[in-house]
Amino acid sequence: QDSLKIGMTFQEMNNPYFVSMQEALNEAAASIGAEVVVTDAGHNVAKQISDVEDMLQQGIDILLLNPTDSAGVEAAVRMAKDQGVIVVAVDANANGPVDSFVGSKNRDAGYQSCSYLAEALGGQGEVAILDGIPVVPILERVEGCKAALEEHEGITLVDTQNGRQDRSVALGVVENMIQSHPNLAGIFSVNDGGAMGALAAIQGSGRDIKLTSVDGAPEAVQAIAEGGPFIQTTAQFPRDQVRVGLGMALAQYWGARVVPTEVPIDVRTVDAENAADFSW
Amino acid sequence: MSHDANIGAPAKARARQSALDWLLHSPLALPLVGLIVVSTLMAFASDNFFTVNNILNVLRQVSVVGILAVGMTFVILTGGIDLSVGAVMALAGTIAAGLMVNMGLHGGIGLLAAVGVGVGLGLFNGALVAWGKMPAIIVTLATMGIARGLGLIYSGGYPISGLPGWVSWFGVGRIGIVPVPVIIMVVVYLLAWVLLQRTAFGRHVYAIGGNETAARLSGVRTRMVKLAVFGISGLTASIAAIVLTGRLMSGQPNAGVGFELDAIAAVVLGGTAIAGGRGLILGTLIGAVLLGILNNGLNLMGINPYMQDVIKGLIILLAIYIGREWR
Amino acid sequence: MSHDANIGAPAKARARQSALDWLLHSPLALPLVGLIVVSTLMAFASDNFFTVNNILNVLRQVSVVGILAVGMTFVILTGGIDLSVGAVMALAGTIAAGLMVNMGLHGGIGLLAAVGVGVGLGLFNGALVAWGKMPAIIVTLATMGIARGLGLIYSGGYPISGLPGWVSWFGVGRIGIVPVPVIIMVVVYLLAWVLLQRTAFGRHVYAIGGNETAARLSGVRTRMVKLAVFGISGLTASIAAIVLTGRLMSGQPNAGVGFELDAIAAVVLGGTAIAGGRGLILGTLIGAVLLGILNNGLNLMGINPYMQDVIKGLIILLAIYIGREWR
Amino acid sequence: MLALKDIRKSFGPIEVLHGVDLEVRAGEVHALLGENGAGKSTLMKIVSGIIQPSAGTISIDGQDRRFANYDEAIAAGVGIVFQEFSLIPYLTAVENMFLAREIKNRLGLLDRRAMRRRAEEILKKLEVDLPLDVPIARLSVAEQQFVEIAKALSLDARILVLDEPTATLTPSETEHLFKVMRELRAAGVAIVFISHHLEEIFEICDRITVLRDGEYVGSCAVADVTTDQLVEMMVGRRIENSFPPKPLPNPAAPVVLEVTELQLRRGGPVSSFQLRAGEILGFAGLVGSGRTETVLSMLGEYPAARCKLRIDGAERRLRDPADGLMHGIGLLPESRKEQGLITSFSILQNVSLNNYGKYRRGHWFIDFKKERACTETAMDQVRVKAQGAAARVDTLSGGNQQKVVIARWLNHQMRVLIFDEPTRGIDVGAKAEIYQLMRDFTAQGFAIIMISSELTEVIGMSDRVCVFRSGGIVATVEGSAITSEEIMTHATTGKVHHVA
Ligand SMILES: Nc1ncnc2c1ncn2[C@@H]1O[C@H](COP(=O)(O)OP(=O)(O)OP(=O)(O)O)[C@@H](O)[C@H]1O
Ligand SMILES: Nc1ncnc2c1ncn2[C@@H]1O[C@H](COP(=O)(O)OP(=O)(O)OP(=O)(O)O)[C@@H](O)[C@H]1O
Ligand SMILES: [Mg+2]
Ligand SMILES: [Mg+2]
After folding, report:
1. Do the beta carbons of residue B7 and residue D135 sit within 8 Å?
2. CATH number of this structure's domain D255-493
3. CA nearest B302 in A: which residue?
4. Which residues cross the membrane (chain D) (predicted)?
5. Contacts of B274 in chain C (CB under 8 A)
6. Which of C247, C260, C308, C312 best tests the A interface by mutation, with the highest count of A CBs <10 A?
7. Nearest alpha-carbon partner for C156 in C101, C114, C235, C236
8. How far apart are the first and last CA of chain D?
């Protein structure tokens, strides 16, 4: 048989987070002489299932699955397993007989960012959440954030709006948030894409509002290093996720029978102090 | 297909009556040429393309948009448009899943509820267009927002999973080797063909798209017909919802974003005039399959996803450009 | 506005000549009523709404879609549609940013490149529609995919940041207290008004939407006019790209997804007939502001985002329904 | 059988029918006469329930009736052929005829064979041979008119309204129609017939009712009036000698336009003709003989298999009508609604549509004052009856709409005008004015091609006549040879040379 064939389906690919994942995958695959097929679901579960079906037609051996939606891709997981393909979920888990799941501790990430925000505000003031597309990792971040905020008596959550993780949408949404809450002191964005829009809105308003987020995207890290409203992001490790994920899959490919079903990847705070040294 | 059915072919073709001639002047010429050209290209580019397995695979992938495109064809034939189909489908699927999972209701009720939601919203659109005299594009744009919002409110943003196993039959089941969604799609197309070509209602659909005032003056109940076509669009959206729910095994309030554009593309690639009055349902099926083959083939060829958008766009343009000569 | 210029208002209004009367029979009546009703509602619901600050805020938010809607108005008046504006805008912005950042070219060249990309793609659409005789909806749908793909290929999926500081002037700068994007938008509208109401070209735009065959047979160069309207749509997309790039301070290949639908909604809410031939550019401005106020007001009121979609949809329906009486 | 009493109708503040009476008996053909805009079509739309009267009563067989829509009128036995077509372009003739009244089989599905049979019967009665399986958009205007008539006949109406059915028919086709009308009359059907062709009135009608400006002028038996009296009733004045005198032929006049080779489609005949300065060149022929297609091909609007033409002796290619305009060639199309007017525009905007060069201010802008002044002059020239230059053209009567399109071209300095059925639907008074305008135009050294299916008009106006048959010119007649016999002989039996 010819060389090992790895398929990876991404929920989206116009986000540096997933683009860097793909880069790490290509490097890793090149080092073992494997072939890589990549698809972009564009946040569309139905397309993601079709993409997986098409990859199965191409005879992949390993499927790295970055699900658009955990429940929705179950059919794809089952189909892959039926054809004897090894399935590892990356970044977000998938329902069904997944061999292993490698992903960030998203609840922790939300918790860390919002604790940081609350402390930076001295435990006092109004904060808002800039929500995103309702998928499990994002919902977990919001959950973690709320838990952190509740630990501070003086902090009130005054608004939750959806920026759809999109810079241009978030910009408008946060502008309105700022208008409607004259005392707003802090914003938590569920990801850096939305945070960059929020940052533009805060800077445009000239108000003193602190911003935290999740991801550790290069742009965000740079903004944090420069100082200003964007004070912290809880970094994930997309390259490491895919490296570990591929490792899990390969282990099984080589015959390992006891592969960890879940490998949580730690997250780490990036703020003005360590931003200069951080990159994915 | 009979000649009467073939609206849009010039007189000369009839006179000569040869089948090839008829085809060349039929509105199906474009879609067929596109289909053949694209399939041939794909077959050359990828060994995996022309296998029974992959062809069934493509048809299964096409089924959801293909079913949506049936209702869209009715609406477009009357000169309207329905931008809400994707959102209505998502809402219908979400509510059906919700009723089955959260309320523990019998599955049949869930499916009925899906149909009820789809047809209900379709009739809502239709009533506003027909009696409210509002432009379809803006009515259905608004309904699209409303349906998405309702779906998210109903589900709280979470997808609804934990459906009874039999639901997956609609999405991944097979009868013989033929996937169930494909069979459902074919049945829907057959019914649509009968309705459009063999009933008075169908003639009225074409008549309204051709000249609404004249149709009304001739005694066609234009408002009822418009109400009905939007109802049909809602119905096909809910059938698509059932198939999709079976495929995703969950209710997804966010599913089907942009499917309305795919459905429109299928209809127009299928040779139906966007201004209404001319077109064949068979063309829509070919258009939908064409789109499916593009998606599938480009994936099989392992083309960079960014590049796929560009190539897909160019091929659609090319297909329409070639087809234009035959009109 | 001169009466002669006011294509689409019925004759009677002219005869009586009272301003109120004219307004009631003008296609602007609907958008104005909508604007007033919605503003009043918002003002009651939120104290923050009727402040100078917030009104400028709304106008600034509206500017991008508002500028896109100008080109869309031209296209829709001829009976076409342009679904590619959002994607063309994103591509123009991305390429401009890329040229400034990666190639270190002078900023002016970046802006020129944005305009070049926008106008170029617009003319591409226009040529296919006018000479290729292809339906606008499908041509621009294909261009939308192509432009998005090209943007992603060019940027590799990363946003392009690190723009020179002066670029932000276009997005967040102010002259006096008035934001620069608002000024740009107003200038674009003024130019469009002059073009549509004061020049032969404008009349030809309306004529093509009213009856293309008649216009062509009487010697209007319909193909050139169609080419031009798509070119204008590309131009306004590139102007919107400059404003957006200034607001985001980065080139975003995936910016503006769905903006084409917002622009269409603004045009139609503004009283322009989707079939072409009738409408006023001022209506589009009102429509765009109306949409902006809805977004802003619902946010100010702190309404659950899912609920906002529903309310927005219902208000749009209501506005069009009320307006319909005046047509 | 049908009696209308004191019918009034207002559109907004303007009353267009000021108390009109009409009585039609079973088994008679009743002519409804009046100038353009007199209110004939409006009255007939009231009879058929398409619009509602503001006041007055309609009674059928002595019973008061009120129709909320056309369907109710049909149920009461009323059928109408509209002045403006009410056909669906992409449906076939059969489908159009049975639209909303389809014959169904036991399953509720269409019984297409039965409908086809019935359609063939009706068309046979009319002695027309139409392709039945083709979308009617592919048929000529006259063929469409027959579909329209057949559609009304298929209703088996007891009261049949024909609103200018002959405007698009040639004499022989009109004869077929009259034959059917006579049969219907014998069967006791009451027919209301509207036409601007007075000789037709005398041929087919039993009694007449005349309207003038929405006023009821009177009714009488046809046998009791002369043409002159009739015209005077309609117009309120006498009209002399409708065709202006022809100038002497001038063989030395320069050829302004020459078509050296024109083949409409491969395998068809190749035609050529010359148009001289100062002449009116008539194009005669039966319906569908290719006159319209010939001029549209010349202008680049239709793709011809071959087309070579010279303008002022220089070889030119016209890619579209805009090129024609540039070379001073203008076209008045045969179907005003589909091809002539922008119905959402005012009269003013329609007239100035292709002539903004005239109203420039600066390089770019429209001079509204000048535009209005010029338009009003042109409107006066053709006597458009309207509330003003700002009125929307879709509120005008059919004839007035036609005049607006004529005004558009008078407003230009054109060297060649192509008039395709210029007086279709125009009343006698206005016709004379249009004829005079055409002569004035050629007297300035300009030239006109006039396509007309009205033989008297062709004979009365043309200096030379090209006769068409099967897509090509089979003969050109001039001077005293221009007689109806000569033209009809060529049009029906002329030899066509097919060229590969
Ligand atoms: N919808 C309308 N709104 C306003 N005015 C109208 C409308 N329809 C008709 N009119 C006016 O009513 C008058 C009568 O028109 P009508 O069409 O009945 O004339 P007609 O006698 O049939 O003329 P023609 O011989 O030219 O067909 C005209 O002055 C016309 O402008
Ligand atoms: N749009 C069209 N497409 C195809 N064939 C057409 C079209 N219009 C007309 N024809 C056919 O072309 C032939 C010539 O039609 P044309 O309209 O030029 O005739 P005409 O002599 O002007 O007669 P009239 O105008 O009185 O109907 C006819 O046989 C007609 O059926
Ligand atoms: Mg009339
Ligand atoms: Mg003709």
Report:
1. yes
2. 3.40.50.300
3. A37
4. none
5. 135, 137-138
6. C247
7. C101
8. 59
With contact defined as 3+ CB pairs under 8 Å, the chains touching C are A, B, D
Query: What is the residue-averaged pLDDT of chain D?
Result: 89
Total number of residues shown for chain B:
327
**pLDDT (tens digit, 9 = 90+) per residue, A116-168?**
999 999 999 999 999 998 788 999 999 999 999 999 999 999 999 988 888 88
Q: In angstroms, what separates the C-alpha of D379 from chain B's closest C-alpha?
A: 29
Distance, in Å, from the CA atom of D399 to the CA atom of D412, rounded to the nearest integer, reads 21
Strand partners, D7: D20
Q: pLDDT tens digit string along B171-190? A: 989 999 999 999 999 999 99
Ligand 2 neighbours (beta carbon < 6 A): B 10; D 138-142, 285, 287-293, 334, 453, 468
Partners of residue D465 on adjacent β-strands? D282, D477
Residues of A in contact with C53 (CB under 8 A): 179
pLDDT of C7 strictly over 50: no
Mean pLDDT of A85-113: 95
Tell me the three state secondary structure of residue A214.
strand
The phi and psi torsions of D365 (rounded to 5 degrees) equal -95, 155
Query: For a pocket test of ligand 2, which of D140, D169, D271 has the largest count of ligand atoms closer than 8 A to its C-beta?
Result: D140
Task: Confirm whether D2-235 and D255-493 share one CATH topology.
Answer: yes
Give the pLDDT confidence score for residue D484 in this predicted structure: 85
Across the beta sheet with A5-10, what order do the strands follow?
A: A35-40, A5-10, A62-65, A86-90, A100-104, A262-265
Of C157, C171, C296, the CB nearest to A13: C157
Residue C190 sits at the chain B interface (C-beta within 8 Å): no
CA of D63 from ligand 1 middle (Å) equals 28
* For A140, nearest residue in chain B (alpha carbons): B158
Ligand 1 atom closest to the Cα of residue D35 is 25
Query: How many Cβ pairs closer than 8 A exist between chain A and B?
Result: 97
Q: How far is the CA of D455 from the centre of ligand 3 (A)?
A: 22
- What DSSP element (H or E) covers B251? strand B250-251
C-alpha span between C118 and C125 (Å, rounded): 11
State yes or no: chains D and A have 3 or more CB pairs below 8 A: no
- Write down the domain spans for chain C: 62-279
State the alpha helices, DSSP H only, in B78-106: 85-101
Long-range contacts of the stretch B9-13 (C-beta < 8 A, 24+): B9/D134, B9/D135, B10/D134, B10/D138, B11/D131, B11/D134, B11/D138
Please identify, by atom number, the ligand 2 atom nearest to the C-alpha of residue D453. 26
Worst-scoring range by mean pLDDT, B15-29, C81-95, C123-137? Answer: B15-29
Q: Give the span between the Cα atoms of D411 and D406, in whole angstroms.
A: 9
Ligand 2 atom at shortest distance from the alpha carbon of D168: 26
Whole-number Å distance, alpha carbon D17 to ligand 3 midpoint, is 13
CATH superfamily of D2-235: P-loop containing nucleotide triphosphate hydrolases (3.40.50.300)
- Which residues, 6+ apart, have CB-to-CB distance to D175 below 8 Å? none
Write down the domain spans for chain D.
Answer: 2-235, 255-493
**pTM reported for the whole predicted model:** 0.86
**Whole-number Å distance between alpha carbons of B281 and B196:** 8
Q: Is C16 on the interface with D (CB under 8 A)?
A: no
- D28/A147 Cα distance (integer angstroms): 92
Is B57 in contact with A54 (Cβ distance < 8 A)?
yes
What's the mean pLDDT in D190-214? 91
Candidate from B8, B209, B218 with C-beta closest to D135: B8
Single-letter amino acid, residue C267:
V
| Separation between Cα atoms, residue D464 and residue D481, nearest integer Å | 9
